Amino acid sequence: MGGCPFGYGAGGATGAEADARTREERGSEWAPALEEEFGSAHADYAKLRAENPFPWSEEFGGFWAATTYDDIVRVAQDDELFVTSVQNVVPHVPRSSRRPPLHFDPPEHTAYRDAIDPVLRRSVVREHETAFRASAVELVDGLLRSSAPDAVRDYAAPYVMDCFAAFLSVPAALTRRIREVGVRYAFAIQDMDDAIIAECSAELYAIAEGVYDDRIAQRPDPRRDLVASLDAAAQDPANHITRKTAVATVRQMIVAGMGAPQAALGSCLVHLAQDQDLQRHLRRHPDDLPAAIEEFLRLHAPYRVFARTALRDTTVHGRLVREGEPIALLFPSANRDQDVFDDPDEFVLRRPGNSHLAFGRGAHRCPAATMGRLELLLALQTILERTERFELAGEVTMMNWLEYGPRSAPLTLRAAR
Description:
By secondary structure, the chain is α+β, with helices and mostly antiparallel strands. It has a single domain, classed as CATH 1.10.630.10. It has 15 helices and 12 strands. It has a 5-stranded mixed β-sheet, with helices on one face. β6 (314-316) and β7 (319-321) form a beta hairpin. α4 crosses α10, α8 (172-191) packs antiparallel against α9 and α10 (226-234) runs antiparallel to α11 (243-273).
């Protein structure tokens, strides 16, 4: 990892004096593009890293943007100075109550992770592989039958919802309902349609509550079931988890389980659609797919709006961050930081030292990293096995600032013979 001019510490600069201009004095130095093309954000981030690696933006109520690998790792790992309980996304989303576990800091946050992490370990997630693969097969066959298939609408979006429904062990009819509401919610978020977001959010909470009660009635093994594990934690007087917050956790995880995986899978599909040589290689050498997925995750990390809020005045990258100011962590930028990754914009299969940040870092690192990797593996395996070739059939449209990934990617596909 290369050096970084990162001044870091509470109350003042480390080394050179910090840039302590006020918000009014510095003005807005950067605005995230609200309309993008596939990959265009990375050109913007490269320019920021070269010219102004830690800019202030007046957009979305005002926030700092951390663009370098070192800055993001240090902010994400310092839970005592930078917290998620004040503002954890940019733009700030008003809420009536905190949604665990994202909206909690350690040690409160730790109790939820102690319940969540064990049921997302590799051995448990692998138990759902058959269901994940069945969804992928069904959806790819649908792509092949469609006259106008779309990689996101017809594959990535419904697939990730099917996977999370399978993980929750819900019946087929409810799986279809979760798919329908979840996909509608995901696109409402992209449209920033407050009315539909509120409607779908309430329905997702009702679904989560129903799932919770149904799973508890079936008395599943808390070592292998998310709801049972949360319910067991809610019975422990040593922590603050209640039935209400456990249900809220399930609801929050349903939302988290569709946004980033959908964006990442959509990006993988677009990348492959644009690279026929890589498609051919992975069909001939399927054992290379896990390594390819790690490089896809580095190149196309979806998270860029998660934020931390400074609890007190401190210095980041030689700039004074004042108490209460949010910092957006631009993971897609960090994953192409030339001080950390050689040839950062190139796809390098089996890249040495690929310590990408696609799943975050620190206490809030994504608990479903293993599940996300399995979802990508089975989705890409299936489409490569069942096709001879696929390519873009039109213009890719991108999601808005809230996630990095395609919103729509029309395809043409040729079935495997």
